[in-house]
Amino acid sequence: MNADMTVGTKPTEIAHRLALQPHFRTLRLGTPFQPRVEALSSRQEWYDWAGYKAPSVLWDEELEYFAIRSQAAVFDISPMVKYRIEGPDAEGFLDRLTLRDVTKLRPGRVHYTAWCDDDGHVLDDGTLFRLSDTRFRLCCQERHLPWLLDSAIGFGVEIEEETEEIAALALQGPTSWSVLEAAGCPGTERLKPFDIGTFAHEGEEVTISRTGFTGDLGYEIFVNAGHALSLWDRLFEAGKLFGIRAIGYAALNRARIEAGFIVANADFVTAEHALRSDRVRMPDAIGLGFMVDLKKGYFNGRRAIEKSRANGGPAQLLVGLEIEGNVPAEHAIVYHNAKREVGLVSAAIWSPTAKRNIAIASLDRRYGRPGTADLWVEIYAMRELQYIKMMKRAKIVPRPFIKLPRRIATPPGRF
């Protein structure tokens, strides 16, 4: 706001002038699919996803969840940050940047990975798509362009954020492949988990991967923003007989917890967002130690991770919990012997599919090993306008909490 706007001007006039400025009128961005999503929103429950207006619930959270598990659910993942990384040194750069061995990632494949700062603390996790020998797409939760550009010094690569240019949908659930078949997407039946394919749409090439965040049969579809609405219409027309439904994040969150997936800055704090030194996490602390490939050359954080392992590992461990009863324990404190505070639950639900009360929690290393006895969670439940404190027993269990055979079946079954 400049001085001319404030001197001698009434507060109501200032507010009016501010309201006329575009960045005040549009508080959150709309994705290329926004007109279709808005039209289906009967609840008008939105949240901010990386500056975009994203649906928390569209029509009914529980029914949206069951659309994932029994039909075909569509979730707009366009706000997911996407980087194009291309050039003769792209493979070497990404191998240096991330934890996994990128030389083993073939063109036409995807892998789940993470990357750390020099102290071995996780900056983010995401999916790396190898679209060709020299072209990759990195998808993640947070924006990292300055970090990527600094890390690329000395490498022959081009790095460009393409979040706005590339729209994306997650199509998940047991009838998801049937929708793709009906939409005329040949070859999708041959895609194995983490495979990439393409199909034609309005004279352009659409990328589809057999990936997702639900632990179910599912795909992620990437299209140029200009063709987003026609792609949406094509899928929904083809999916009429297969129960296709649009969903919000609340339903997706239920499914991802069942699948044991973690969310940056929800289940762990990324290195760039942590305000306290004890909040950062190494890969071993959040269940990503399997990614660390010490057989390859140097990568960011390698020395720190090796040193941590030599000293016994991280101070905390992220674990799955099964809790007695049916009251979700979200953000509950975890105790040992019902007295000693040993951790915190970051995500929890009553699982309709597993028929269990489940949670993801970060525990002190001493108490985070399988078989640890006498764990309790402190849950506060609303009963007739009063919170009731409940102490419920908990035990450490493996993640994922559910394993659906259809997730990996190739070719997928028809439903």
UniProtKB/TrEMBL annotation:
Domain of life: Bacteria
Binding site for substrate: E220
Membrane-spanning intervals of the chain: none
Domain GCVT N-terminal: 62-296
Pfam families recorded: GCV_T, GCV_T_C
Location of the Aminomethyltransferase C-terminal domain: 318-402
Record-given protein name: Aminomethyltransferase family protein
Lineage: Bacteria, Pseudomonadati, Pseudomonadota, Alphaproteobacteria, Hyphomicrobiales
